[in-house]
Amino acid sequence: MKLTWFGDTALRVHLGGQVVVLDAHAAGVGVDRGELTAGADRVIELSGRQALAEGLTWRPRVAQRLLEAGNTTRAVDVWSLGEGALLLDPDEDMPLLVLGGAVPKLGRWVERAVVVLVGADIAGRALTLVGRSAPRLMALAGSESDVDAAFEVLRDRLDGTGLVALEPGLAVEV
Fold it and tell me: What is the pTM of this model?
């Protein structure tokens, strides 16, 4: 999985052999939206109309068997877990949860997931997230002061969760 943040809630994600672009319209000044979305298999909105899933009971889909898949790749499943909570479920990769709003209630599946926190109050939402569950990795996408505040409150509370700060335009391989 490769995450590239372009400011606000704009992300370009390579996962499960596909490219998904989230909130291209929200990319920072100087980012060419055409280049951002070029080659994307899917362009979606964080607040778009996605199928609704229940975070406590949701389960990652079972990967296709080689004989069933042949030479085709299934599209990444996209689910909404509520306002500002988007879940991407690819084949042969970890689930990706993008949180631009409140932290929903989540099941044990989040222990294998990557969670990207975007938008306002990253520190508060990150603290809520680790208080409820322990994701495999949290990626923070916000202003330097917001990210610094999150690192400060999370310092002694991660308990095995990886933590990374995303920089605009810089790709991070997970």
Answer: 0.93
